[in-house]
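Appendix B, Record 12. Input sequence as logged:
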Amino acid sequence: MPWPSSEALLAPLVPWFEAAGRRLPWRARDLDGPHPDPYAVLVSEAMLQQTQVATVIPFFERWMERFPDATSLADASEDQIHKLWEGLGYYRRARLLQAAARRIQETGWPGTLEGLQELPGLGPYTAAAVASIAFQLPAAALDGNAFRVLARLLGIETDPRASAPLLREWLEPALRIHGPSRLTQAIMELGATICPPSPRCEACPLVSPCEARRRNLTERIPARSPRAAPKEIELWLLAVRAEGHWLLQAPGKRGLLAGLWLWPALPLEEASEGVAESPAPFGVTEVRTWPGWTQVYSHRRERVHPIALECEVPFPAPEGLSWIEEGELAALPMGRRDQRFQELLRGPSPMLNEAPPVAGLLERLHRRG
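Logged structural output:
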């Protein structure tokens, strides 16, 4: 292995972390023993995937108040967990977290890294993070922050993920000597606060041995893989109300928004094709529209055109849709796009110059059945 020993190279992280480490609600004060609440570590790691610490903290505190242990989470309904997760995004994490809690409720906590990897939703990183932080196992937790810190420190100019097995082997002696929980969290902390994509090298405890700094490569390391351009979609988002009920799409089991209730959506070009008939067959008595917005997801961008329709009486709900009593709406879990529309519905709508194709929208929505 071409790198200096990890024990000596990473030693300055220990006093730095003890002095500068943030007090986080899931972080134990005693870093020399097992964590007093492994479940809190598991919840925090699930929430921190793809999400910043500052965003996670209030969600974590509300979650732990409502579901303080694996048993309470295991017994919760899917709507309850999604409603509490509402706003964090990537809702699959909530479902997998509950599946892991159910496994723990049934069989107890695994005592090895391999056992943790068998829990639902725990990939190599999350299992290693829980193993090291909660159980003091010398497992190298390599996330984006850790890969960036180690790539710069060791001068790895290629994608550091390709060197993951070597990095895990290299880290293990340092984890054993400096403490798995302490060193794992110190590396995470350094990557989040001092060594982000634009680093603050002057404040770094590892600036002296850092190869990227020495070779003036901090802006090029780690190597960045090109990302595919997000898919562009334009759609109508419909809120149809009749006799105190709203027409909603029931939660799906798979996909980006699985587990969430949705307002019906129709592709713009499909819904805008010429339909000559009047909306009278559907008993539309009021039409409200708002300026649209762009909703950004990890792999797609939606240009949303919201429209609300009031009907005299409910028509048969198309397949996958249900009429939901108005009083139940606030308790249903929704994603950010659909929450935003729900908030618009509570206020007035501005006058728009162009009339929406109401008949075409309802006809195509009706045909879904």
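DSSP finds 16 helices and seven strands in the chain.
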